[in-house]
Amino acid sequence: MNNYRQYCYVGSHNLLQILQQPSQRAHVHNADDVLQWIKETHQALNVDKTIIATFIIDLGQQLWIADQRSEHVRCAVGQPVLSAGEMTFAVYSNHVEVVEVTNQSTGYCPEPESWEDVAATLTRTGLSFPSDFTTAYLFRRCEKCGATNIVKDMWFECGVCQAPLSQQWNFPRVDDCVIP
Q1: Residues 55, 70: Cα–Cα separation, whole Å
Q2: What's the distance, CA 38 to chain centroid?
Q3: Which residues, in sequence order, are bridge partners of residue 28?
Q4: Mean pLDDT of all residues in the chain?
Q5: Does the chain have fewer CB atoms within 10 Å around its N or its C terminus?
Q6: 166: left (phi over 0), alpha (psi -120 to 50) or beta
Q7: 147 φψ region: left (φ > 0), alpha (ψ -120 to 50), beta (else)
Q8: pLDDT level of residue 15 (50, 70, 90 thresholds)
Q9: Residue 79's closest CA among 6, 141, 2?
Q10: Per-residue pLDDT tens over the stretch 122-151
Q11: Is the pTM above the cut of 0.85?
């Protein structure tokens, strides 16, 4: 574990009510767990034999996945994470590999540096995977209006109020967060 940063949920407080519902997340130790999750949750493979899942890496450096349309905070059962985003699995008969991984999670806003924890966790699963996030996002909170922004083309300006955005990651640290 890189101990770089732990991320707490920084998304909409309105979504926290979904934590009262049971999560249909799956703990992934190996390829068989991915295949079992696909079968049990009736996931439909895309034409190219891929499936996109919401993922989180918990503080124990364990991989959890859920349906792509589910919220990261639900997949994490409200707890802090080491990384979060979307993971694309290619499924060929009984062979599974990770072909894409992003840090796209506006609920946790993990930094691209969280890849170290993703890679360490995926290594233990035995699944093949890319050498880095296939798409990495920079998230910043606007200090003027509070909006969560994705920085595009290194343009550090709030998309809501046009205020300048911090050059540094500026969401609450785990110690400053209220865990549901």
Answers
A1: 10
A2: 18
A3: 63
A4: 93
A5: N
A6: beta
A7: beta
A8: confident
A9: 6
A10: 999 999 999 999 999 999 999 999 999 999
A11: yes
114 φ/ψ angles, rounded to the nearest 5 degrees: -70, -5
Answer yes or no: are the C-beta atoms of 113 and 5 closer than 8 Å. yes
Cβ-contact 105, 140 below 8 angstroms: no
Distance CA 17, CA 7 (A): 20
Residue-range domain boundaries for the chain: 13-136, 137-173
Report the C-alpha dihedral over residues 167, 144, 86, 8, rounded to 10 degrees: 90
C-alpha dihedral, 77 to 88 to 83 to 109, nearest 10°: -90
Q: CA-based Rg of the chain, rounded to a whole angstrom? A: 16
| pLDDT value of residue 1 | 47
Residues 6+ apart with CB under 8 A from 15: 71, 73, 107
- Give me the residue label for tokens 């995926």: 122
Q: What is residue 180's predicted lDDT score, i.e. its pLDDT?
A: 58
Hey, how many other C-beta atoms are within 10 angstroms of the C-beta on 179?
A: 9
97, 49 Cβ separation under 8 angstroms:
no
